Amino acid sequence: MGEKDPLPAAIDATTSLSPEELGVLRGQYEAEVRCSKGWVSVQTKFNYSWGLIKSTDRVQVGEGVQLFMDIYRAEPTRRRECLYYLAVGHFKLGNWAEARRYNSLLLEKEPTNDQAKSLATLIDKAVAKEGYVGLAIAGGAATLAGVVVAALFSGNRRR
Q: For the chain, what percentages of helix, strand and coil (3-state, to nearest 5) are there?
């Protein structure tokens, strides 16, 4: 049997909302800010953060991470959920170490959490892919340096 596809459990890491869907969440958030003199319910902030984390726009993902950090600090009862979405947000931003750190904290609390296990697989694959790209770049740079040195030596011999 082949490797289990991590996508279904960690779908938040690979899917986004439509601009209209995110607009609804933003509208709810902004309406509460206006009507409550800056106060926003935890659920509204959570919903908007979730929508931002799912975005393909790095700035929006960063905003979502910040809002989830605010919730994490202020609401101990929501920390488990925040850990997962903080890991997803950092994953989408390419902050592999932070993504792994938050996801590992969640897995310590819930070792059988399928979302976190799937996200760990996605993080590991991204880190490995980045490592391969880094090796390829380093290999290409070494080859180029070798060509330049060879050209310099051959130029010196002709003189």
A: 80, 0, 20
